Amino acid sequence: MSSPNGQMAPLLFITGASSGIGQALAARYAQAGWRLALVARRGALLQQWCVEQGWPVSQWAVYEADVRDLAQIQAAAQACLQQQGVPDVVVANAGISVGIDLSYQEDLAVLKDLLDTNVLGLAATFQPFLDAMKQRRSGCLVGIASVASVRGLPGHAGYCAAKGAVVQLCETLRGELQAHGVKVVTLAPGYIDTPLTRENDYPMPFLMNAADFAEQAFRAIQQGVRWRVIPWQMGVVASIMRWLPRGLFDRIVGAQQHRKKRRRSDP
């Protein structure tokens, strides 16, 4: 697929593209005329969705992979490189959000799943493209973090730890890659209306629909920002949370009764 000036349209590679934020971002990039390399565990469902959008088949390709499986995600990346070329933007979006309680032994396995998906999966998504982007001296890596990365929240030990690691990993890569012309953008969503957040049974201030998030995320990525909280209201909340003294923060969160649901129901 070519752009109006005859050049090959830019390419987006994105994981977790079958629903939520990933699907909304894919649609926004398609609207802008980009080619799409879409990755998800539910490959058939994603392919059906692409057909329903009416996009020309030259605009998109679907790669079925679970980011927790290093062989699968690296095979998807290699297939993209061979069939579509080096992406201009890589969005490591695939992630899970589930509460844990470390007084339960079985929640250690849930913690591992959170870290494998949100952290190792992100690194494995970026890794196959690093050399090619460095050689080309252009490209953008986008890590989807969360406002939950700012401080540790009761019931969110695994999610906060994983998203905090995403922030630090992206910051490290930004320092390593800036001399090679490769940008690294970290996006921190607040509460976005997706299948993940619909399971929450507690208040979600400044809840934003996925299409509005995708529009703001698209602009932030195009601008090459280093860090952006979306929506901006949650950015204010995040700044306050970050600078609260530990003693005051502990008293505030300790009084909260709401907890993220565990994967297994509490007895």
In short:
With 267 residues, the protein is of the alpha/beta class. It has helices spanning 20-31, 43-53, 70-83, 107-136, 157-177, 210-223, 232-243, 246-254; strands at residues 11-14, 35-40, 60-64, 89-92, 140-144, 183-189, 192-193, 208-209, 227-230. It has a single domain (11-254), classed as Rossmann fold, CATH 3.40.50.720.
Can you walk me through this structure?
- This protein has 267 residues and is of the alpha/beta class.
- The protein has a single domain (11-254), classed as NAD(P)-binding Rossmann-like Domain (Rossmann fold, 3-Layer(aba) Sandwich), CATH 3.40.50.720.
- Helices cover 46% and strands 15% of the residues.
- The chain has eight helices and nine strands.
- It has helices at residues 20-31, 43-53, 70-83, 107-136, 157-177, 210-223, 232-243, 246-254, and strands spanning 11-14, 35-40, 60-64, 89-92, 140-144, 183-189, 192-193, 208-209, 227-230.
- It has a seven-stranded parallel beta sheet, with helices on both faces. Strands 7-8 form a two-stranded parallel sheet.
- Helix 5 (157-177) links the parallel strand 5 and strand 6.
- Helix 1 crosses helix 6 (210-223) and helix 3 runs parallel beside helix 4.
- The longest helix is centred in the middle third of the chain and has 30 residues, at 107-136.
- The protein is globular and about 55 Å long.
- It starts with 10 loop residues before the first strand and ends in a 13-residue tail after the last helix.
- The model has no long low-confidence stretch (mean pLDDT 90).
